[in-house]
Design goal:
binds adenosine-5-diphosphoribose, three-stranded antiparallel beta sheet, alpha/beta, six-stranded parallel beta sheet, 9 strands
Length: 247
């Protein structure tokens, strides 16, 4: 019933907007942060993913980030990512706003992806600004800890992601809020919706009159405001919605 209702809402959407979190990449093998088996149930985020921690000791940061980097670089899009690409191609979504830094939406062929928390696919030297692919830095981690800048030799190579304690880049956030205000349907997938300001986006859209659909493995604080709530796996539910719409 609810999947059918979600398909009905999306099939008539003209300015639909998707907001995604770590849950959509869980079936690609990348652990989420919260909920069952989440990274933050094992590590203290302030201790391993804050700008303060990075600046204090880049090698400790890279040691903690090494395994997650390997998993994220090896990951490929799953049916959940591809279903959003199909919904965009069919004109039901104008964009995907994501909290994820894994680049899997782009790899799945989604044209308009707004990355609120940056991209984990690039690394930048904080001394000279030189950028290089994460994959190249990842390959050096067995022999070089912390990794050094190839240009200036500096040891403050930081992934171009937003760490705790850092401000979000303004432009993607403003773009996401504007799209949320203009959205007729919001599709919120795989996020615990407890991290701000990202979690403001669906609230702004709902207040502006958008209908909302939540697809998440566990309950979220926004469930009570949503029109349709589906507690399930994105990789199962989203393709089913696309099939019902006839994508
Ligand atoms: N399908 C759908 N939902 C899933 C799946 C799945 N296969 N697997 C897990 N989930 C749900 C979990 O139940 C959880 O509620 O996805 C949600 C993921 O929530 P978080 O781990 O909190 O991820 P997210 O909301 O993206 O976190 C926001 O917090 O740690 C920071 O910067 C990080 O971008 C991240 C932000």
């Amino acid at each position: 019933m609810t999947v059918k209702r979600a398909a009905e809402l999306l099939s008539s959407a003209g300015s639909g907007l998707a907001l995604t979190g770590a849950g959509i990449s869980a079936e690609s093998g990348i652990p989420t942060f919260r909920g069952e088996g989440g990274l933050w149930t094992k590590y203290d985020p302030v201790k391993v993913a804050s700008i303060e921690y990075f600046m204090a000791d880049p090698s400790a940061y890279w040691t903690a980030s090494k395994e997650r980097g390997r998993v994220a670089l090896a990951a490929t899009p799953n049916p959940g990512h591809r279903a959003l690409t199909a919904l965009e191609a069919a004109g039901h979504l104008v964009a995907v706003v994501t909290q994820n830094t894994d680049g899997l939406h782009q790899e799945a062929g989604t044209r308009t992806v707004i990355e609120l928390h940056g991209s984990g696919r690039t690394v930048q030297c904080l001394d000279c600004g030189h950028r290089e692919p994460r994959a190249a830095v990842q390959a050096r981690l067995d022999s070089e800890m912390p990794p050094r800048c190839l240009i200036c030799g500096g040891t403050f190579l930081k992934p171009t992601v937003v760490l705790f304690g850092e401000a979000l880049p303004q432009a993607p956030m403003q773009d996401a809020l504007a799209l949320a205000r203009a959205a007729d349907v919001l599709l919120i997938v795989g996020s615990s919706l407890v991290v701000y300001p990202a979690a403001d986006i669906p609230a702004v859209g709902i207040r502006a009159g958008a209908r909302s659909i939540i697809v998440n493995a566990e309950p979220t604080p926004l469930d009570r405001l949503a029109d349709v709530v589906i507690h399930g796996r994105a990789g199962d539910v989203l393709p089913e919605i696309v099939d019902l719409i006839g994508g």
